[in-house]
C-alpha cells in the first residue's frame, strides 16, 4: 500500500519561498499520479497541482500558476512542490495524495493521502 509523508512546511514571510516534499513508500511511486491539495481553516480542501506518473504533464490551480512548481523524482520516490512568492492566502495544511493512472481534478479520485504539513505565511 502506498504511504505518503509530507515535509517542508513552516512559517514564512509574504513573498518568501518554501519547498514541500512528499516521500512515498510501500510501492514504487511511478505507478501513481501525485497531487498536492491544501485546506485552510473553515474551507474545503482544494487541489493545488498534480503531476503525471512520468512527470511530463503537470497542472495547477489558477491561484498558484506562475508561483508554484511541481516536480517528481521517481528514483527517490519523492514529489516536490516549490512555492514562491507566497501570500497570506496560501496559508493552509498541504497534503499530497496519490491516484492510480492520470491526474484527476476531484479529491475523491485520490485513494492515498499523507497527514499534511502546515504552511503559514505571515509577517
Give a structural overview.
0% of the residues lie in helices and 50% in strands. It is mostly beta strands. The strands form two sheets. Strands 2, 4, 5, 6, 9, 10 and 11 form a seven-stranded mixed β-sheet that branches. The mean pLDDT is 95.
What is shown here, in short?
The chain has 123 residues and is mostly beta strands.
Structural class: mainly beta
Q: Please state roughly what percent of the residues sit in beta strands, choosing from under 5%, 5-15%, 15-25%, 25-35%, 35-45% or over 45%.
A: over 45%
Mean pLDDT: 95
What is the chain-wise order of helices and strands? Answer: EEEEEEEEEEE
Cα-based radius of gyration, to the nearest Å: 13 Å
Q: What is the 3D form?
A: globular
Largest sheet: 7 strands, mixed
- The tally of beta strands, per DSSP, is 11
Outline the low-pLDDT stretches: none
Provide the helix percentage: under 10%
Task: Give the N-terminus to C-terminus distance in angstroms.
Answer: 40 Å
The total of helices stands at 0
Topology:
Layout: E1 3-7, E2 10-12, E3 18-25, E4 32-39, E5 46-51, E6 58-60, E7 68-73, E8 78-83, E9 92-100, E10 112-113, E11 117-121
Top keywords for this entry?
123 residues; mainly beta; seven-stranded mixed β-sheet; four-stranded antiparallel β-sheet; 11 strands; 50% strand; globular
Amino acid at each position: 500500500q502506498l504511504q505518503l509523508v509530507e515535509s517542508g512546511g513552516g512559517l514564512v514571510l509574504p513573498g518568501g519561498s518554501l519547498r514541500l516534499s512528499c516521500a512515498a513508500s510501500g510501492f514504487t511511486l511511478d505507478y501513481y499520479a501525485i497531487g498536492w491539495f491544501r485546506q485552510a481553516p473553515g474551507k474545503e480542501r482544494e487541489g493545488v497541482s498534480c503531476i503525471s506518473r512520468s512527470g511530463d504533464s503537470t497542472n495547477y490551480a489558477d491561484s498558484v500558476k506562475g508561483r508554484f512548481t511541481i516536480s517528481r523524482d521517481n528514483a527517490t520516490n519523492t514529489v516536490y512542490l516549490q512555492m514562491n512568492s507566497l501570500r497570506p492566502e496560501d496559508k493552509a495544511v498541504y497534503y499530497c495524495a496519490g491516484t492510480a493512472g492520470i491526474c484527476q481534478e476531484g479529491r475523491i479520485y485520490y485513494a492515498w493521502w499523507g497527514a499534511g504539513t502546515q504552511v503559514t505565511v505571515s509577517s
